[in-house]
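Worked example (supplementary).
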Amino acid sequence: MTSAQPIDELARRLGERLKADRLFRPGDPSYAETTTLWNGAVTSRPALVVRPHTGAEVAAAVTSARESGVGVSVRGGGHDWAGRALRGGLVIDLAGMRDVRVEGDMAVVGGGGRAGDVIAAAAPHAMNVAVGTAGAVGMAGLSLGGGYGPLLGTAGLAADNLLGADVVLADGRLVSTEDDPELLWALRGGGGNFGVVTSMRVRLHPDRGLVGGMAVFAWKEASTVLSRFAELIADAPDGLTLLLEMTVAPGIGPCLVVVPVWSGDPRQADAAIAKVMSLGTPITTSVGATTQKDLWGQFDQSVPQGMHWDLRTRNVAELSTGVIDLLTGWADTRPGPGAGIGLRQFHGAATRAGADDSAFGLRASHVAVEISAGRLPDEESAAYTGWADDVSNALAAVSLPGGYPNFLLSDQKEQIAHAYGAHSERLAKAKEFYDPAHIFTATPLPGRDALNI
Ligand SMILES: Cc1cc2nc3c(=O)[nH]c(=O)nc-3n(C[C@H](O)[C@H](O)[C@H](O)COP(=O)(O)OP(=O)(O)OC[C@H]3O[C@@H](n4cnc5c(N)ncnc54)[C@H](O)[C@@H]3O)c2cc1C
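After joint prediction of all chains, the assembly is encoded as:
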């Protein structure tokens, strides 16, 4: 709880430093818009929201909050399932900073830019960008936490493509990573723990012609499809990156949706995609030559909206028979149609980034398992949360230590302790250096409990 006095003090300071139209309070239409997140289960609400338009305005907001003793959080695309955008008395909403400018093979992206904004700006230049599977996700939130995506095999993680950033630090200074390589290292995977990114330089990749889409397989084929999927990803060329969802599709029921994206030499695409089609007998397919804009448009249509979510994550080194049996068995016990298990392949270019290039913890090939329990707003949460926990606990014995930080909760201490591997100590030092008072609470960092607020 934030008492009225510091909030009044904060409102006064912000009023002195910023235009009145930058500030929203409960009851304002823009307040409601900002505080509505993708995960409808998040109920925390800040006392004030500020929507800055420049780095200097972000600095004024951070300074005002610190001087008033009010906690801050940062909202980008609002897609963090754990609701970390809405922690503290003041939310800094970066929706007013979504500009994207393309300069050769680089995009300069405002701190509130979404993945879809960058895709749209890069498209006329015949360029692609390493992003996740949803256009509405914030480019900074995605990149700072890591950023698995369908171009990962050829382009690496989103974090690997973060070339530089302008950042407002906890003391209110607006700095550039050009003068501070350690800050860039920490931002590439260490989350929003070090400051507010007001602008990013993001590497773009020439569009060589993508081939991708979705192929749906019946659930009765699950064991066969997953075994062949395991063989395929164990041997996949960099150009082929695969995702798989064990889900329930309208009109089909329980099924497996395989999402192949080919981003390598176009002459090898057909052979690679043919292997995906022979994972089983597809019920429906929509795979073909495409552009990033069109393909992501297709992905965005499949993102569920308006639901409440619980999410757990594990990494497995490979899809062994034991792992496959666990996954199919637990998928069969899903508490409702919105609950499912997703697999994200980590391979190729993403495995080759040097340890000193980024804080991201796990560079060995692996499969990230996403256990997502989505329910309708009026459904009881207990069965869904319990299922997600049970699946995660069952997988623990066959998983690698740690997990994808963007999906971890602060009370998952055991996973957090290993999420950054050998980088933990360096990250903890960076946190103490850049944000000694722990103004910014973001994805959980290993180390002292105080870091995992
Ligand atoms: C539908 C959906 C699809 C997804 N797909 C993928 C995927 O394919 N691959 C993947 O890796 N992840 C994926 N994610 C996870 C996503 O990358 C993270 O949840 C990410 O943090 C969301 O960023 P956001 O800006 O939208 O979130 P927000 O909720 O707005 O922000 C979350 C946190 O990110 C930090 N942050 C955001 N912007 C800034 C900034 N400018 N400066 C400093 N800190 C900032 C802050 O700590 C903030 O609290 C997906 C999530 C959803 C809901």
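Two points are worth noting when inspecting this output. The two ends are 15 Å apart (CA to CA). The longest helix spans residues 382-396.
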